[in-house]
Each structure stands twice: as C-alpha cells, then as structure tokens.
Amino acid sequence: MPPAPESRTDDEVLADTDVAVLLRYGLTQDAFRTALFGDGAVAAAVTLDRLGVLPRSVVFVAEIVRSGGLAYAAGLPESLPSPEPAAVLRDWLSGAAQTATTPEAESRAARWLEAVAEIIALRRATRENHP
Description:
The structure is a single chain. By secondary structure, this protein is mainly alpha-helical. The protein has helices at about 10-15, 20-25, 30-50, 55-70, 70-75, 85-100, 105-130. The radius of gyration is 14 Å and the shape is globular.
C-alpha cells in the first residue's frame, strides 16, 4: 500500500493550484483530469467557501452548465448570489468555455462543479462538528 500523501493547508493548496488553467485543460485533456478533480476541485472549493458560497449555489450552476453549456453559464451576470464569487466563477467558466466545446467536456464541467459543491459541504459540516 502506498504511503499516505502529506497534508497541506488550504493556503498551500491555493498557492500551488491554478484553478482556471486546470479547468481549461482538465476538461479536454486526460493528463490534467486527475489534477482537475483533485487539487483543482479542492482549491475551487476553498476559494468559494472562503467567499461564503453555499454548496447548493454551485450545484445550481452545474445544472445551468448541463442545460445551457459553459459559455451560457459564464455569460450570466450573476451566476452566484454575491458579486465577488460570481466574478471568480465567471472567470473560471469563461476560460473553460474556450476549450471545452464538446458535450462530453461540458458534462465533465458540470460533474466538476458538483464535486466542488460536495467539498464545500464537507468543509462546512466539519466546521459545524468541530467548532
């Protein structure tokens, strides 16, 4: 059995991870997919959680991506309830929309957003149980 990976702080994950780049390439290139759904999802969740985004808001955006596509979701003036996180998410989605032009890539984007929402929910539950 391989050794457990070293723990990293939220700040270390954020410093080492460019969510926009991982999203742009991870949706279309297999070599980046593990990093996108690993560190990329964690970094996105940390970022959005720190901005006060609720998991259900991210799930809602995933549904928009699934129904209308990345470009449509990126073009929404307020994809999230608050302006600052909406701008962050818009930047990520608009970059991804430039390369992820197939239905499979857009489906992956929706699944990634759902993964981000789940991580946010887990972080919140952990904080509630360990004040």
